[in-house]
Amino acid sequence: MGIRYYAYPVRASDIEFARANPRDFLAADPLADAWGPAELKPRMLYLDKCWGQLQEFLGPRPDRPERVAYQLVEGQVTHTSEGWIPFTRVLDPAQVHEIADELSQIGEVDVLAARVRTFRRDGLVNDDPDELRYVMHYLNDAKSFVDALAEDDLGLIYTIG
What we know:
By secondary structure, this protein is an alpha+beta fold. The protein has 6 helices and 8 strands; from the N terminus they run βααβαβββααββαβ. The strands form 3 sheets. The chain has a 4-stranded antiparallel beta sheet with strand order 2-1-8-5. Strands 3-4 form a two-stranded antiparallel sheet. The N and C termini lie close together (10 Å).
């Protein structure tokens, strides 16, 4: 199945409790939330396995520091001999506002430009249209989700696992 990303809203008044007790704010089966019938889906963000591409895009690079929006996808699972331990983070409403502001300024041109890789003296652009659509689909979902949370002055909890 692989490692996937799920996020859920958290009321401002519950942020500290969510940090102390993250399992209380995450679904027992988030994949069922993501893939289940639309009428049963809770308010959530599902990034499938695209969180890795979004980390690469939003994270630190030699030519620039990480973006504020990297907070939305930062983290790695802890691998053990018996599988992995999910990574979980809680973001407060102020962080969600900052992330929403930054994501609103990012478009397809920015994502495509970030996909440039240099080999020897030539620049090779990874412009695979299917992968670009995949990344843009989940980036747009992330934008919509954090915009709505910012509008409602909510924080969020996410897990990668």
